[in-house]
Amino acid sequence: MSPSAAIVTILSALLIGAMSPGPSFVIVARNSVGLSRRDGLATALGMGVGGVFFSGIALLGLYTLLAAVTWLYVSLKVAGGLYLIYLASKIWRGAPAPLAFDAAQNGALANSNPRKSFWIGLSTQLSNPKTAIYYGSIFAALLPQHPPVWCYFVLPPAIFTIEAGWYTVVALGFSSKRSREWYLRGKTWVDRVAAGAITALGLRLIFAAHRVGL
Which residues contact 159 (CB under 8 A, 6 or more apart)? Predict the structure, then answer.
């Protein structure tokens, strides 16, 4: 396979992975519908930066170290799972709190904070070691052993475009006026369902880590 064909295949596989439901999707959707479109887009930007980070790790071959050192892999899985559970607990506790519209911000919710949403998106992406392994496996399987230098300059921005682009689509879809009105009517239960889903994903990471450690 030529380097160009390998790059196209890698990007296609990563797009499929990004579109698979997971904690990133839940967080982007929740911030978009529950806070504001700007928060959703900021969260999507954080996901894109996280993707660039993982691509850098994969290009450097550090996934080999992660796969070889069992205790490190297990520790990252547990830490990622605990972070997701912590994030879910914050969403659950805030579920009953009403949200008010601020007319001066053209309908944006009063507690909108794009900077915070960006860091939540980035930390959510980085807290999932499964994503690191997914990136590493794809790069190991498809990237030539000695890729041309241009690959190191083309892949990171292309991956950022895929990750941030997909979650931008999610943010725009969930931040529409109709979606927000629907969310406000059932905020408590919507937030608790989202918190439950994120908790389940966190527990899955922890239990998977336990199996790896056995």
Answer: 11, 14, 51, 52, 54, 55
